[in-house]
UniProtKB/TrEMBL annotation:
PROSITE patterns: PROTEIN_KINASE_ATP (PS00107), PROTEIN_KINASE_DOM (PS50011), PROTEIN_KINASE_ST (PS00108). Keywords: ATP-binding, Kinase, Nucleotide-binding, Serine/threonine-protein kinase, Transferase. ATP binds at residue 49. InterPro entries: Kinase-like_dom_sf (IPR011009), NEK_Ser/Thr_kinase_NIMA (IPR051131), Prot_kinase_dom (IPR000719), Protein_kinase_ATP_BS (IPR017441), Ser/Thr_kinase_AS (IPR008271). One of its GO terms (molecular function) is protein serine/threonine kinase activity. Its EC number is 2.7.11.1. It catalyses: L-seryl-[protein] + ATP = O-phospho-L-seryl-[protein] + ADP + H(+); L-threonyl-[protein] + ATP = O-phospho-L-threonyl-[protein] + ADP + H(+). Residues 20-216 form the Protein kinase domain. It holds the Pfam family Pkinase. This is non-specific serine/threonine protein kinase. It is an enzyme of class 2 (transferase). Belongs to the protein kinase superfamily. NEK Ser/Thr protein kinase family. NIMA subfamily. The lineage of its organism: Eukaryota, Discoba, Euglenozoa, Kinetoplastea, Metakinetoplastina.
Amino acid sequence: MAQVADESKAMASEVFMSKYRNVKSIGKGSFGEAVLVRSKTDGKRYVVKAIESASMTSKEKRDVQNEIRILSAVNHPNIIRYHEHFEDGTLIFIIMEYADGGDLNSRIKEAKKQDPIRPFEPKLVMFWFLQICMALKYLHDNHILHRDMKTANIFLTSRNVVKLGDFGISTVLQNTLACAKTVCGTPYYFSPSYARTGHTTIKAMCGHLVSFSMSC
């Protein structure tokens, strides 16, 4: 299991401290602690994922490099933007865009406390849904499967702009008909075909999206 870098150790990195100021911890992603930071260069806020690679397996190291490769390659308004990455000893830092509205999972939980019957206006849900569809279409047009579509990996800005993130287990396929044959992700959000066979295609990912939409 990949080890989340101890925040105090990560923030004590000379390379990191020369570039960023720590603001606060905001959660954990697939492979690391997510910390809100401010750039000493441009003054903007970013999220840094700090990962301790010393005890990683070779597969986990490949998954981290895979996330970096995909993040740095994609460019879409509804996908978290990659800023940079660097290493300091055994620590790997991935710097990404900050979505100041939190994640959709937390947003749903908070809204249901206020109104369990109708937590959101249908127009808002449709607005989010369409943005998620556009992000997925972009990924699928580029032969990328996210493979862990869930509300915790969908981030929002304060203006309700969707930002799809956490590409730790994504797969790049050779073509849109190719099939990923390893089972991974979050079972609650599996499409029926994926739950039954464990094989994923672009078409099957549409089932994941339907499962997601029902959670709202």
